[in-house]
Design goal:
185 residues; mainly alpha; two-stranded antiparallel sheet; two-stranded antiparallel ribbon; 9 helices; globular
Length: 185
């Protein structure tokens, strides 16, 4: 008798725990009193820590592009500050990151298509940075955190992100290398 009563008490406790977890999940997914229904764009309130990180990310990207825009406007020789490409000086061919600085200067000054022409990988990475800055701005200012960001970083492993970055840079190098070889012939 006591064993069956204890089993029913255990079951009711587990049921209570499940309902509390469900309530907590539904509360976290509510923004402005309304629950988001889309799985891709489900949102919830960002914690103050996430808002602070988003602020730092957004300001960092703004400062990065602002510095390059100013350098381009005042015609500052970035190669002098960052160093000229030793690979290109020795071999006469561009290295995997040749043109990144020039492409970033063009992108920061609003010449986006020119940026893609100079170094396609850099144009793509700059676009990713702009999207990251926009999302960080939304999180920092409005306090809205998108669930797909959390899902992306939990499901996609760091080694796959690094592999994707290497493939993007290699593809950009292939384009600039082919252009340099064609110019030499």
């Amino acid at each position: 008798m006591q064993a069956s009563q204890q089993n029913s008490d255990d079951r009711s406790q587990k049921s209570d725990e499940r309902s509390r977890k469900t309530e907590n999940r539904s509360r976290r997914s509510e923004v402005g009193g309304q629950r988001s229904r889309s799985l891709l764009f489900s949102v919830y309130r960002a914690s103050s820590g996430r808002r602070m990180v988003a602020t730092i990310v957004c300001l960092g990207i703004i400062v990065f592009f602002g510095a390059f825009a100013l350098a381009g406007h005042y015609k500052i020789d970035m190669g002098r500050w960052l160093g000229y490409c030793g690979f290109k000086q020795r071999t006469g061919l561009p290295c995997p990151t040749c043109g990144m600085t020039t492409a970033t200067l063009a992108f920061a000054q609003g010449r986006i298509f020119e940026s893609f022409y100079i170094q396609p990988a850099c144009g793509l990475l700059c676009c990713v940075m702009v999207i990251a800055a926009i999302l960080a701005f939304i999180i920092a200012v409005f306090g809205i955190y998108f669930r797909f960001i959390e899902r992306f970083f939990s499901e996609v492993k760091l080694r796959y992100m690094i592999l994707a970055l290497i493939i993007i840079i290699a593809a950009g190098w292939a384009v600039t290398l082919a252009r340099a070889v064609a110019a030499n012939n």
